[in-house]
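Figure S7 source data.
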Amino acid sequence: MSAMRMLITAGPTREPIDPVRYIGNRSSGKMGAALVRAALAAGQEVTAILGPVATPFPSAAQRIDVETAEQMLAAVLREFPKHDLLIMAAAVADYRPVAASAAKLARKGVRMLELESTADIVAAAGRIKRPDQRTVGFSLETTPDPQRVRDKLRQKKLDLIVYNAVETISSELIQPTLFFADGSEEKLPSRPKGEFADILIQRSAGLFD
Ligand code: C5P
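Tokens for the predicted cytidine-5'-monophosphate complex:
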């Protein structure tokens, strides 16, 4: 079997407030790094689109560095048509300042920051998805709500979504449940992200059977 071309996004995005400040999140990129390693070990060709991460990534993957959600959207829309599968493990900022200030903002008592939603990247990829392509997403929730996860699966036109608890974001461990587009579910025991990455790469490849 020839290698599958896998596009994996990872890490946070940073949305500038001014030249030195940004809105970000706690994503470490560890899950994404584990997925890149697992995909390479399985003999697949990997492109990684990375937000600002300190986590080391294998050099055998083609690496594209981005900073903002808008840059990640542009990179995904450009790269996805050249790949069989997109795994969207990045923690994309949901909001960005309507206008970043060109000058460093001075401190003042109370400052209002006007925010607008960023584009939903994996949903945008879903809209250009060909019948021979698959998309996989993640869902991080504070309160377990399987219906909400299934709604996301459908709205974002995903083939598979990985649900995990919010504590997972900076942890070494993950205790996920997989929700598939055919309605099936798979609850997995807690394990290191590296071990889970091997399973997710197998399940993702299985989406083409
Ligand atoms: O809606 P929610 O943020 O929980 O969905 C999570 C999934 O959607 C993840 O796979 C994440 O990478 C993706 N996402 C995205 N673009 C956004 C927000 C989330 O692709 N702006």
